[in-house]
Amino acid sequence: MIWIGPTPGVILHDPQLVREVLSNKFGHFKKPDLPSKFMKLIGQGLSSHEGEKWAVHRKIINHAFLLEKLKVTYEQFNYSDNY
């Protein structure tokens, strides 16, 4: 458990728990309320939406998270890290 100011939070390191929360339990957890200045910086998108709005945006970008695309991305990151 961590504290971000007066707000408690939890960080998950176990991949199975992360998958469970992100895939199956997304409606059970509330995202933190972020200050409006921070929201202006990161914009409105998947990271800021919840519920039905999140589901619509996640469906739109779902193809970016396919295993084959992630493998290519990983290879590119790995290549650039070596230089």
From TrEMBL:
Keyword terms, alphabetized: Heme, Iron, Membrane, Metal-binding, Monooxygenase, Oxidoreductase, Transmembrane, Transmembrane helix
The keyword Transmembrane belongs to this UniProt entry's keyword annotation: yes
Domain of life of the source: Eukaryota
Molecular function per GO: heme binding; iron ion binding; monooxygenase activity; oxidoreductase activity, acting on paired donors, with incorporation or reduction of molecular oxygen
InterPro entries in UniProt: Cyt_P450, Cyt_P450_sf, Cytochrome_P450_Monooxygen
GO cellular component, one term: membrane
Biological-process GO terms, alphabetical: lipid metabolic process
Subcellular location: Membrane
Family: Belongs to the cytochrome P450 family.
Stored PANTHER family: CYTOCHROME P450 72A15, CYTOCHROME P450 FAMILY MEMBER
Protein name: Uncharacterized protein
Annotated organism of origin: Eleusine coracana subsp. coracana
